[in-house]
Amino acid sequence: MVGGWMSGGTMILVLLYVAGSLLLFGLGIYFLLTAVNFMKEKAQNEREIIEKLEQLIRLTAKTNAPSRDEHEIP
To answer: What are the transmembrane regions (predicted)?
Structure first.
């Protein structure tokens, strides 16, 4: 079948196109999943940081709060 519409050179080009398309699609899915995972971890880390900052604020408020004895009027 020499000279058919699907000769050797054309078939290689079609296969390269399909392989390239699948590769780009796969990379897109991979980067999308990586970004979603990164955002989940970022949200978890931010929650932990906020919790630690709240603990630090409570601790500092306790240590800086004046005692009742200092402000009593004799």
So the answer is: 12-33
Domain that holds residue 56: 31-62
Q: Does 58 map to a domain? A: yes
Q: What are 1-35's pLDDT values in tens digits?
A: 455 666 778 889 999 999 999 999 999 999 999 99
- In our burial notation (b when 16+ CB lie closer than 10 A, e otherwise), range 28-58 reads eeeeeeeeeeeeeeeeeeeeeeeeeeeeeee
Residue 45 lies in a domain: yes
